[in-house]
Amino acid sequence: MKQSLLAVALFAAAAAQAAEEPEFDASQFEKKPFEIGGYVQLKQESFALNQDGAFYKLGFHNRPQRESLDRTTGTLQLAGKARYGIGTFDFRTDSELMRDQLAHDHQTKIFEAAYAVRPTPGLSMEAGKRALKWGKGYAWNPIGFVERPKDPNDPALAREGFVIADADWISSPGANLQTIAFTPVLLPVSSDVNSDFGEPGHLNPAAKLYLLYRDTDIDLAWQGKGSRPARFGLDFSKNLASNFEVHGEWARILQLQRPVTDSAGNVTIETANATSYLLGLRYLTASETTYIAEYYRNGTGYSEDEFDQFYQLVDNAFATGNNALVQKALSLSQSYGRPNAGQDYLYFRAQVKDALGIVYFSPAVTAMVNLQDGSYQVTPELQYTGIKNFELRARLFLLEGGSGTEFGEKLAGRRLELYARYYF
Amino acid sequence: MKKLLGLLLFFAALPAAHALDGAQILQKVDRNLEPETYESYRQLTDIQPDGSKKVSVLYTMKKGRDKVVALFLAPASDKGRVTLRLDENMWLYIPEVGRAIRVTSLQSVTGSVFNNADILRIDYTAEYDVEAAEEQKDAYLLSLKAKTGEVAYDRLKMWVDKQALLPVTIEAYAASGLLLKTLRFSSVKDFGGGIKRPATLETDSPLYKGYKSVMQWSGLKKREFPDEIFTLNYLPRVQELRK
Predict the structure, then answer these.
(1) Chain B residues whose beta carbon lies within 8 Å of the beta carbon of residue A86
(2) Sign of CA dihedral B150, B155, B159, B163
(3) Are B228 and B237 in contact (CB under 8 A)?
(4) What does the alpha-carbon distance between residue A391 and residue B97 come to, in Å, rounded to a whole number?
(5) Which residue in A177, A249, A395, B31 is a FRET match for B214, CA 20 to 30 A apart?
(6) Which residue of B has its CA nearest to A290?
(7) How far is B75 from chain A (nearest CA, A)?
(8) In whole angstroms, how far apart are CA A351 and each of A5, A210, A345, A365, B91?
(9) Distances from the Cα of A208 to the Cαs of A124, A134, A163, A300, B66, in angstroms?
(10) Strands A231-241 and A216-223
């Protein structure tokens, strides 16, 4: 009887509450032949420069010395789509206007612009500029063979693609093999097209085979020898529990060449096979804190000893004022100074959803550690998305490590970043 | 004596013949709520204690008992995001990121009281067994137990309208017995094609005091889809399926 009364009460309560929201009419959301959207962003960065760091000395060589730098960057990112018949053209452009006390600059890049035809649901073919994203890693992707490197400080950021022709064939056989998909890719390189991919004069083939087998995502990836050395690899991702995911990647690059210097500036090109791999996990607690942890072994990176030699070269160059050595160090800085140029890294991120009882407020902390030299970067972060179509974020990058370490020799020891982004 | 025994057996069997078949009721609830394969538009309104609202619009496709895709059409900050569910596997595709990542059923891609399991709901019969069914004045009360530990809610109490065989209220519980949320269906509407079901679902949770979320349906109709669209590779082009 008690439960019957409860049921009647619940019926009545539901009926009363139904009247609060106006009826939803979906007609305004019908598909249109042309769509455009994107975001505008204003970013303010303050750098506390690390005047003892090797990359500060190289970056500020023959320039007025500074202790700090403030930079303002405005960004407009446009994404659009036009449909006609079985074909679709889509694009994403990125325009930036940047100003700091040393320079001002502006540039517009076409991140993606491709035309695709889909004769059947299981087959798609496209040509144009496309940013393919291969791999399961959050901060790094050893099997990202045909893409520009991800910034581990901003893994979700859109990136510029390459001009390619690719296809996608999908099948769902059922049973244990729930999905199989094959993605062949052709990537031309000439002096005008994809020139930063590698040696010109090659039509580079690559392919990825995706399987969803027994609830596990598996990718097998390959890129043939051409503008870059041949490489192959695989990845996987699986939920061990509904709130606990594990993932991994493994890649092998054949006959990779990399410049290695000694402290006197004698550069040798070493050629060897390189193996990179990554193991990671993502865990969500009952209180909706997400933990991400990854270990990354970078087979293309430099060891602690190799870094030492480079830093000694920079010290020698500036101690002696030898301009030839400075120029040599500058030419090597692209290789030694690229993000995560070391060999062993640990990445950790914890993000709390709706912290302090504030909905859409998500504080986070991210740490990246170079396990060989012990240097690290810690980044506390505050994010708020409670205003319609706005994203507000503040981050403070704290780099520690001392002399002769990766994060201790960076250009800036501290960086405060604030941005407001409006989506339209 | 034989006649007496027969009579006794007849009366003994009577309660069984009239016993509620909870599993059958749940199957009917599933089919009355939605055809097995359909498309629909949904609006999710998240209401904060101060009355401010966040509205999301999703286009949803479902096939069979356990395949669901939902594409975000609004707000602009979420437009183009796609969530895919294959049985207990769930992924989120974000256009800027360019690839799908695994998400869990307890998370909410919208920041709503509705979590991913609510937004990408598959058939109740696919996830729950009926432990008990009880007839009340206007409703059947079904006590449901999750078939596996992967299901978002360990137990459900579902009050089902006796005439329409549609759910009216569902209470969702954790394995600890904690009430996680209450879901209330209302505004029964004729969507055409023989689909007459609640057009509104409202939820609140003791874990989010003062907050509530409302889900409203529009354009719900039967539509057949190939299996290939319920795959990771298809997610970037899901929106091309809309008519």
Answers:
(1) none
(2) positive
(3) no
(4) 16
(5) B31
(6) B107
(7) 7
(8) 44, 30, 20, 7, 19
(9) 14, 8, 17, 22, 27
(10) antiparallel
Asked if residues A373 and A404 have their Cβ atoms less than 8 Å apart, the reply is yes
What gap in Å lies between CA A159 and CA A324, rounded to an integer? 35
Instruction: Select the residue from B60, B233, B237, B239 to test the A interface by mutation, using most A Cβ atoms within 10 A.
Output: B233
Round to whole Å and give the CA distance between A184 and A222. 10
Whether residue A215 and residue B88 make contact (CB cut-off 8 A), yes or no, is yes
Give the angle A144-A241-B27 at the CA atoms, nearest 5°: 115
Distance CA A270, CA A251 (A): 19
Give CA–CA dist B70/B85, Å, rounded.
9
Half-sphere exposure of A107 (CA within 13 A, CB side): 6
Tokens describing residue B17: 């013949």
Dist CA B240 CA B112 (whole Å) = 27
State the pTM of this model. 0.88
Dump pLDDT digits (tens) for A50-99.
999 999 999 999 899 999 999 999 999 999 999 988 899 999 999 999 99
Rounded Cα distance between B217 and A254, Å, is 55
ipTM over 0.90: no
pLDDT tens profile A88-116: 999 999 999 999 999 999 999 999 999 99
Whether B152 contacts chain A with CB within 8 A: yes
Long-range (24+ apart) CB contacts under 8 A made by B127-136 are B127/B151, B128/B26, B128/B156, B129/B23, B130/B22, B130/B23, B130/B25, B130/B26, B131/B22, B132/B22, B133/B20, B133/B21, B133/B22, B133/B25, B134/A3, B134/B20, B135/B20, B135/B162, B136/A3, B136/A4, B136/A7
By DSSP bridging, strand A104-120 and strand A177-189 are unpaired
- Give yes or no for a contact between B198 and B26, defined as CB atoms under 8 angstroms apart: no
